[in-house]
Amino acid sequence: MKLVSYKTEDREHLGVYANGHIYNLNSCDKLIPDNMNAFLEGGEALMERAKRVNQDILTGALSPKEEVFYELLAPVPHPTSCRDGYAFRQHVAAARRNRKVDMIAEFDQYPIFYFTNHNAIQGPGEIECMPDHFQKLDFELEVAIVIGKKGRNIKAAEADEYIAGYMIMNDMSARTLQMEEMLLNLGPAKGKDFSTIIGPWLVTPDELASYKVPAKDGHVGNNYNLKMTCKVNGIEVSSGNMADMDWTFAEIVERCAYGVDILPGDVIGSGTVGTGCFLELNGTGLLNDPNYQVQWLQPGDHVEMEITGLGALSNTITKADTDFSILALKK
């Protein structure tokens, strides 16, 4: 099942994407809330009701009116929190090699994550950025999960049961801001907090069963053979696979939930897949060829990410009409 959030006029709604169309779930079953947050809080009972509606639509047993005039939003427009992981060893190793530092041994000891701005979640469409963001503006190709039920101190062996679904994530990054602030060892903040893009829909785990592959040796949890690509202005710049995750989402959830509650509506990203951002691609290119032409996102660029089974997430990058700069405020 593919769950979507969308807007008609000034109201947000919850729908299902089936047979190439969007249908409002609440109009099909009045016990299903008309927004994603309330739906996720309803847990497995509401999820099963929605799956029955979806199946009835797919088989023709139900013929509801499709939505025609709508704006597609992030699947979870108002997440309760947003974390981002660091699960792909290939990306971490390449980034460190490009900085001429050794691979850090701690990567293989425990999964890590950081909190990003859950109020800066966006979906398909235009992404407006400030002038300072365009100082080395970057994409990051990732998979994300959404938590479907509350939990605490969850073991990795049971953690997949807490995942409501999967979606594409583009963790937008302003590298000049990011690199300056990380010199002070508090992690990314202004370099990451302006836009995290998710979408186009939330795909429930049952739809991905045929893509399931074993976790890497020594790891626990579901993993999937899903090809991941990113195109900028129609040119493929990144290609990877979710199966290359070294830390599974189950293991990341285990760490997230240690001593704290995870909640329905929490979004957790995988971290960047290998080759999944210009920072890595530029570094590798310059390492191999000093004349390599680096690339960063520019106003008007079209970014399309596609992941097998999860759809395609398309965005156009625009520049805010202002000259306000926080980089210019440095002492």
Description of the molecule:
The chain is an alpha+beta fold. The protein is built from 8 helices and 22 strands. The protein has helices at residues 25-28, 36-41, 43-59, 89-98, 156-159, 175-182, 249-256, 278-288, and strands at 2-8, 11-18, 21-24, 71-72, 81-85, 113-115, 121-122, 125-129, 137-138, 141-147, 151-152, 163-171, 173-174, 196-203, 212-213, 223-224, 227-232, 235-241, 261-262, 266-269, 302-307, 311-319. Strands 1, 2, 3, 4, 5, 6, 7, 10, 12, 14 and 20 form an 11-stranded mixed beta sheet that branches. Strand 21 and strand 22 form a beta hairpin. The chain is globular, with a radius of gyration of 20 Å. The protein starts with a strand and ends in a 12-residue tail after the last strand. The model has no long low-confidence stretch (mean pLDDT 97).
Helical residue percent? 10-25%
Number of separate helices: 8
Question: Low-confidence runs (pLDDT<50, min 5 residues)?
Answer: none
User: For the terminal residues, how far apart are their CA atoms?
Assistant: 52 Å
Which class best fits the helix and strand makeup?
Answer: alpha+beta
The whole-number mean of residue pLDDT values reads 97
Q: Strand fraction band?
A: 25-35%
Rg (C-alpha, Å): 20 Å
Identify the overall geometry: globular
